[in-house]
Amino acid sequence: MKSKSQLKLLLEIFTVFFKIGSFTFGGGFAMIPLIEKEVVENKKWVAEEEVVDVFAVAQSMPGAIAINSATFIGYKISGKIGAIIATTGVVLPSFLIITLIAIFFSRFQDAVVVKSVFSGIRPAIVGLISTAAIKVAKASIVDKTGIMLAILSIVLVVILDIQAVFIILGGAAVGLTVYCLFPEKTAKILSNGGKKD
Amino acid sequence: MIYLQLLASFIKIGLFSFGGGYAMIPLIQREIESHGWLSASQFVDIIAIAEMTPGPIAVNSATFVGYKAAGFWGGLVATIGVAIPSLVLILVVSRYFFKFQHHPVNKMVFYGIRPVIVGLIFAAAIFVAQTTFFNEGITLNLNHIFKNPLSIIDFKSIFIFALTLIGLIKFKINPILIIVLSGIIGLLITV
């Protein structure tokens, strides 16, 4: 019985990540709205405030953000085998689509239909990522320090072109500094679990 | 053995590229050039194709390069190669992450990291917006911008962006449906 429900769970993990892989246009961050909808809201595999942690780990490690996040979430749901299934699911759509394009289309990217469809999807991605950012912000910014850190990192990335890894390390350093130097603030943050309210 | 070469190259790419997607392009380019797998113009094609198809840019380009270099199995081997480092590293990290998740030090580290990630997500939105809302090519021509400032703005994109926001916030439409609908709108507007 147990193995049957385990198999069902793995199949669900595969389906969800296959779906996410099929509709993630424009890089790793475009996955966030899909993860929010499928993994957090529908399946409740990951809590709202944990989504940020997933991306913190995915961004700090080498490799594609989409693969890293899928592996991490898959591991959280169902251990090693869950990680492998989730990764396979998220990679498979790309593999199939690109193989078909490589076999059948020599100038896929110049096709008028493809260009027009993509010209519509691109601005939608901006909308999807920004609404996801607002959602994630609500769950993960708990005080003024958080607001300042968020604004500072936007400036560092957009204007000064600093790599994400360094910015994440900087954020970690701020957290550690508060822990070492401000015990009262630390106690307050820890008492509400680092969450709002 | 071209399969082994593809596997080794893409493991290397997966292992040494931080920041995902576009940060990987120079690394992929170096590997392709040193092995002579693709021509320079084919490489430009890959980026365009990877952008216009769903999925991680790393996977898309691995599959494409592998296929062009050594057929179906080449594509498969390269794709597995680019995913292996992530899979192994994340598995190791996850074990420790979930073990120490509730430790005060770990909690405080994430207290600092979470807002920064929010910033990175906003920055990603800004990057896509920059290339979407402004017409390419004209941006550098200052003379043109002063004469006709509105010409650099792509109103069609901003219109679709606004529709997306309304759909997402007011009507809570599923993101997948949003992508399908926006693709259809893009097609209808151009045709």
Query: Cα distance, first to last residue of chain B?
Result: 47 Å
- For the record, the count of structural domains of chain B works out to 2
Q: Provide the helix percentage of chain A.
A: over 70%
**Model regions low in confidence, pLDDT < 50 over at least 5 residues of chain A:** none
What share of residues are in beta strands of chain B? Answer: under 5%
How large, in whole angstroms, is the Cα Rg of chain B?
A: 21 Å
Structural class of chain B: mainly alpha
Largest sheet of chain A: none
What's the tally of helices of chain B? 8
Main sheet makeup of chain B: none
Q: How many helical stretches of chain A?
A: 8
- What overall form of chain A do the CA principal axes indicate? globular
The parts of chain B where pLDDT drops under 50 for at least 5 residues are none
Commentary on this structure:
- The complex is a heterodimer of chains A (197) and B (191).
- Chain A has 197 residues and is mainly alpha-helical.
- Chain A has helices spanning 2-23, 31-42, 50-60, 65-104, 112-140, 144-158, 164-181, 183-191.
- Chain A has two domains: 2-140, no CATH class; 142-197.
- In chain A, 79% of the residues lie in helices and 0% in strands.
- The termini of chain A are far apart.
- Chain B is mainly alpha-helical and 191 residues long.
- In chain B, helix 1 (2-16) packs across helix 4 (57-99), helix 3 (40-52) crosses helix 4 and helix 7 (155-170) packs antiparallel against helix 8.
- The model of chain B has no long low-confidence stretch (mean pLDDT 85).
- Classes of the chains: A mainly alpha (197), B mainly alpha (191).
- At the A-B interface, helix 1, helix 2, helix 3, helix 4 and helix 5 of A face helix 1, helix 3, helix 4, helix 5 and helix 7 of B.
